[in-house]
Amino acid sequence: MDTSRIKPLSRLIPGQKAAVIKIENEGQSQKRVLDLGLIEGVRVESVLTGPFGDPSAYDIHGALIALRKEESSKIIVEILE
Amino acid sequence: MVVVALAGNPNVGKSTIFNALTGLHQHTGNWPGKTVAFSRGHYHYNHKTYLLVDTPGVYSMDSNSAEEKTAGDFFRGDHFDVVVAAADASCLERNLILALQIMELGKPMILCVNLVDEAERKGYEIRWDVLAQLLGIPIVPACARSGEGLEQLRREIEKAAHQEGVPDQEGVPHPDPAGTAALIKRAEQIAAQTVRLRKPRPNEFSRGIDRVLTSKVYGLPIMFLFLAVIFWLTISGSNIPTRLLAGMFQRLEGLLVSVFAQTASGVLADIRDALIYGTFRTVGWVISVMLPPMAIFFPLFTFLEDLGLLPRIAFNLDYFFKNAHTCGKQALTMCMGFGCNAAGVTGCRIIDSPRERLIAILTNNFVPCNGRYPCLITLSALFLGGGAAWPGGMKSALWVALLVLLGVFLTLFLSWALSKTLLRGDSAPFILELPPYRRPQAGKMIIHSLLHRTLFVLGRAAAAAAPAGLLIWLAANAQIHSRSFLSVCSDWLQPAAHWMGMDGSILLAFILGIPANEIVLPLIAMEYSSGGVLAELGSGESFLILLKAHGWTWLTALNVMLFSLMHFPCATTLWTIRKETGSWKWTGAAFVIPTLTGALFCAAVTLAARMLGLSGQ
Asked: Is the preceding peptide bond at B221 cis, omega within 30 degrees of 0?
């Protein structure tokens, strides 16, 4: 596996697509992320970054979802393209 | 009677389906979390009555936020016969996760896939037969807005109601009970087999707009511009209708006076005067000052709400709310406060963490509600407009917009201060869905919500104004040691008011205005003109003359506007806060915090202006 392609979701730039490989969120945050349908193997795309660089919005299962860095930095993804 | 539960993810059009089936007019809006309480409505089909229960949108059946818990409890209980899961056709995969969870309840179930027109436009093709086969339940494609698919939905509900208990699911693969992960995988599989996309980028249009609205450079200025334009349209548009209405009430008053002039004497004459000059005049005032701006402001706001702008505002402002250690959804409840603070406080239920919800409740009053705009707009137009370089009303609009900006700033500042003192803690995980932009529903809907909202607020204002007007008239005419009771009260408040750059009559009007903020300005006019006759009721010029005769300057007007922005919530809001927090202590805090802020702010502004010799006298 090419490790340079593996980074936290928060480091994606708009337009980049990735697949979730690990979710390190805990407790309430873990529950919330799961509710959105984020599990290993799910594809996500970074769509928007807020005016101040945080939060960012991602395409998850076809819905546009905004996440703060606190959450997205713990979701580890592999960049697809 | 058959009880039908309506369930689904947030923002898939449940309220629209509910309204279309029951003919009720629950307010819809394009943002997740709009429905925070259950609504119930009836409809009849083939001589049978159905009770439809609309539930708050949820992401999962076992979450721990307050709203999701109520929904979860409801579904686990045995309170309904049939469940209709609503889904958004252009986001089927995500919606299927919840639908599969609902299926595990084992109740007769129908999947209503709403917004098919929107999905079609975006290039989604759904193979309905395959979907029905894979899920093993009836599927109804619908466009609730236009009524498409509703007849089929009623028919399927009727059929499902005849089913006994758990539907026969033999041959239907059961979702793996091991957990949500399995459901998610299954939803992905089903979507892959049933949804085909004709265009490579279905949301390109929405996303293009989003990139501008949330950009570093344009994001916040555009939102401020939206605000200023709304106020400008409201101010410049309500000028003439207000004058016409005021003239009408004046003629009506004259008519009443002449009709009843000969009919009474003694005590009866006093009662007549109290009713005409107290009650009737105040109510007339309230209607002519409030109706035009509301009739313009509400549809404009509804338009932006239906469009889907509110979640973008929350997205742009979240950075600030995060730094205030609160929830980004507070931006949504703040926007609701623009309509009505009581509604904003109730809306705080969408915030999961109790600490963050309490902060949002305590600070909601810092954005002006509809009851306060007339005061802000009127005073701004009278005292802060003008200047030949400014086209009609634009400067006044800018002042109001700046004041609202100050309110937003104070909301953030006090949220931060509360997070550091009384309500310490870190922000809870924040997740916000940005729904696709939707064409606001037909003009009919806008007019409808306008009538509902406007008449509701206006009715409340008039109901509060009638007794208050009577009270003021009586207080102005009741004598204590040859002075009117009113002037005794306002003299008592004078020292405090002086520090805040106002006078005792103004402060008294704010206090008497607790039932409804709408009547503060009319009360001031009543107090000033009590005893004498208020000539040319409601018209701008004569009002300006009246205020100036009582020593008003631009500084007085600015202070009244500032205090209107920052003072105790109205009685309805206070009652709602008591209900939502269950605590008198926090209700007290919600009273004291804005009042103290406002008093200090006005005092500081007044002191600064007096020291700089800018008091305008």
From this structure: no
pLDDT in tens, B558-617: 999 999 999 999 888 898 899 889 999 999 999 999 999 999 999 999 999 988 887 655
For A3-79, the fitting CATH number among 2.30.30.90, 2.40.50.140, 3.40.640.10, 1.10.10.10 is 2.30.30.90
Q: Number of C-alpha atoms within 13 angstroms, CB side, residue B501?
A: 29
- Nearest CA distance, B81 vs chain A (angstrom): 26
pTM: 0.82
Question: Which residue, B52, B53, B135, B54, is CA-closest to B97?
Answer: B135
Contacts of residue B205 in chain A, CB cutoff 8 Å? none
- CA A63, CA A68: separation in Å to the nearest integer? 16
- The domain defined by B2-202 carries CATH number 3.40.50.300: yes
CB contact under 8 A, B431 and A67: yes
Q: Which residues of A touch B351 (CB under 8 A)?
A: none
Nearest CA in chain A to B435: A64
- With a cut of 0.85, is the ipTM above it? yes
Q: Is A70's CB within 8 Å of B429's CB? A: yes
Rounded alpha-carbon distances, angstroms, from residue B317 to B311, B411, B474? 10, 12, 48
Q: Which of A29, A47, A50 lies closest to B429 in CB terms?
A: A29
